[in-house]
Amino acid sequence: MAKVVYEGWMVRYGRRKIGRSYIHMRYFVLESRLLAYYKKKPQDNVVPIKTLLIDGNCRVEDRGLKTHHGHMVYVLSVYNKKEKYHRITVRDLFPILKF
């Protein structure tokens, strides 16, 4: 059976310590049990910036609309319940993802 992989460019959303928010384009790869993102489209032997194991403890939190430099963005946060502070926060997850 062929392995199913979803991948594409999405925007990573975060906040700095001084309260300003930022967004970065990142290349996300969702495999059967792993979500990972990279600065650019991964080639052979490239280490991801961050990974998250998808299991029964994985949660998706709807953060709703936020303002980023005067623009409204829709924000989702993906995290593992056991490691609540190891989050991956993205905006506009579904419109940017390529299947």
TrEMBL record:
Family matches, as InterPro entries: EDR2-like, PH-like_dom_sf, PH_domain
Signal peptide: none
Annotated PH domain residues: 3-99
Highest taxon above the source species: Eukaryota
PROSITE patterns the UniProt entry points to: PH_DOMAIN (PS50003)
Alphabetical list of PANTHER family matching this protein: ENHANCED DISEASE RESISTANCE-RELATED, PROTEIN ENHANCED DISEASE RESISTANCE 2-LIKE
Protein name: PH domain-containing protein
Species of the source: Aquilegia coerulea (Rocky mountain columbine)
